[in-house]
């Protein structure tokens, strides 16, 4: 073999050696990064009393209120009260002067004395005639005795009629005296002494004072149709008013209409609140909270821990360092807490903070508890 042939064979051998060594070496694959754990905060379900409430607005009214008017015409001779005065039942508040009625009453009193005297004379006459008739039948006829008895009956009827007329005039004169129908406070005064008071006719009114009993106040609220079945006379309520934000007043439902307004689909409900110190004033605006349902030892979660889709509600729990989607069944809620009636046993760590950033199976790291 000449020199050129030997050089070619050596080159071929070297190329084969390089090729064989290249085939035996594998290409290096890029490293796959492990997903990092998401930091979340968790909350544990708690068993506690859960109350569902309804908050509705209402305006305060006095338990009793009356606009007092006269039932007779005349001039107001005096008025003894003004706004803010406390009065007792039966107390004289105002008096109307009706001089012509007084004169008529005095004339009727005189008339009563006259007919009573006539009655007495008729009684004596009837008794005497009856006695004479019994002792001497021929001296007095039966006709005379009967006529005397008849005249006696007429005299008795005249006396009764006169007394009735006198009582009517007495009542009319009493109408001229305006008295308090109940204990209360004068909240308005409409007239002054000397004013002409006329009988109210049709829409024309003649008010003198307004009287209100504020020892209790009533609040009317409208309960929506879905909550109507939960209203009873034992339903607890709380009242707060804008004017007294630091105070809360409590009472139970007093009465309700039992029928719904077909226009609003609400039921009128009344609550009476004690108010002996009169801190609550008629006309104040307030908010009433009605306690509709109470569930003892309910398994609860913050409402913000739930996620809701078309299929239902679910939460994410932490299981072995990973988020696990767990379907739950809910009961009622008070707006802050929600009752869990299915899906959780009570010892799970439920993701609260970061629930919107995790998916089922994603690694998570608990960064704190709520």
Could you characterize what this model shows?
The chain is α+β, with helices and mostly antiparallel strands and 370 residues long. 25% of the residues lie in helices and 44% in strands. Among the domains are: 41-50 and 297-369, conserved putative lor/sdh protein from methanococcus maripaludis s2 fold (Beta Barrel); 56-62 and 213-295, Elongation Factor Tu (Ef-tu), domain 3, CATH 2.40.30; 99-175. The strands form three sheets. It has a six-stranded antiparallel beta barrel with strand order 2-9-12-11-10-13. Helix 2 (99-135) packs antiparallel against helix 3 (142-175). The longest helix has 37 residues, at 99-135. Mean pLDDT is 87; it is low at 1-26.
Strand order of the largest sheet: 2-9-12-11-10-13
CATH architecture of the domain at 56-62 and 213-295: Beta Barrel
Number of helices: 3
Relevant CATH superfamily of the domain at 56-62 and 213-295:
Efflux pump adaptor protein, beta barrel domain
Helix content: 10-25%
- The CATH class of the domain at 56-62 and 213-295 is identified as Mainly Beta
Radius of gyration, taken over Cα atoms and rounded to an integer in Å: 48 Å
Structural class: alpha+beta
């Amino acid at each position: 073999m000449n020199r050129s042939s030997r050089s070619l064979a050596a080159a071929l051998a070297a190329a084969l050696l390089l090729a064989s060594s290249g085939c035996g070496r594998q290409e290096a694959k890029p490293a796959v990064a492990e997903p990092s754990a998401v930091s979340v905060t968790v909350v544990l379900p708690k068993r506690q009393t859960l109350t569902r409430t309804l908050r509705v607005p209402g305006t305060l009214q006095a338990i009793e209120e009356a606009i007092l008017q006269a039932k007779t015409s005349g001039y107001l001779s005096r008025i003894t009260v003004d706004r803010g005065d406390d009065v007792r039942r039966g107390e004289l508040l105002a008096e109307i002067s009706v001089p012509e009625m007084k004169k008529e009453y005095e004339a009727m009193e005189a008339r009563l004395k006259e007919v009573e005297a006539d009655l007495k004379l008729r009684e004596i006459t009837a008794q005497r005639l009856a006695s004479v008739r019994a002792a001497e039948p021929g001296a007095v006829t039966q006709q005379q005795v009967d006529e005397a008895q008849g005249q006696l009956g007429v005299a008795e009827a005249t006396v009764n009629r006169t007394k009735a007329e006198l009582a009517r005039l007495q009542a009319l004169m009493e109408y001229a005296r305006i008295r308090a129908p109940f204990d209360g406070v004068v909240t308005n005064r409409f007239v002054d002494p000397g004013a002409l008071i006329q009988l109210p006719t049709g829409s024309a009114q003649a008010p003198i004072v307004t009287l209100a009993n504020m020892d209790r106040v009533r609040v009317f609220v409208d309960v929506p149709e879905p909550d109507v079945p939960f209203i009873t006379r034992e339903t607890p309520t709380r009242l707060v008013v804008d004017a007294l934000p630091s105070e809360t007043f409590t009472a139970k439902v007093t009465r309700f209409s039992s029928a719904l307004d077909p226009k609003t689909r609400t039921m009128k409900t009344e609550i009476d609140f004690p108010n002996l110190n009169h801190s609550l004033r008629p006309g104040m605006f307030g908010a009433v909270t009605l306690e509709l349902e109470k569930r003892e030892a309910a398994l609860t979660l913050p409402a913000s821990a739930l996620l809701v889709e078309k299929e239902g509600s679910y939460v994410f729990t932490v299981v072995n360092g990973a988020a696990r989607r767990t379907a739950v069944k809910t009961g009622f809620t008070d707006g802050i807490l929600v009752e869990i009636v299915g899906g959780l046993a009570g010892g799970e760590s439920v993701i609260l903070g970061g629930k919107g950033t995790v998916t089922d199976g994603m690694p998570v790291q608990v960064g704190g508890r709520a």
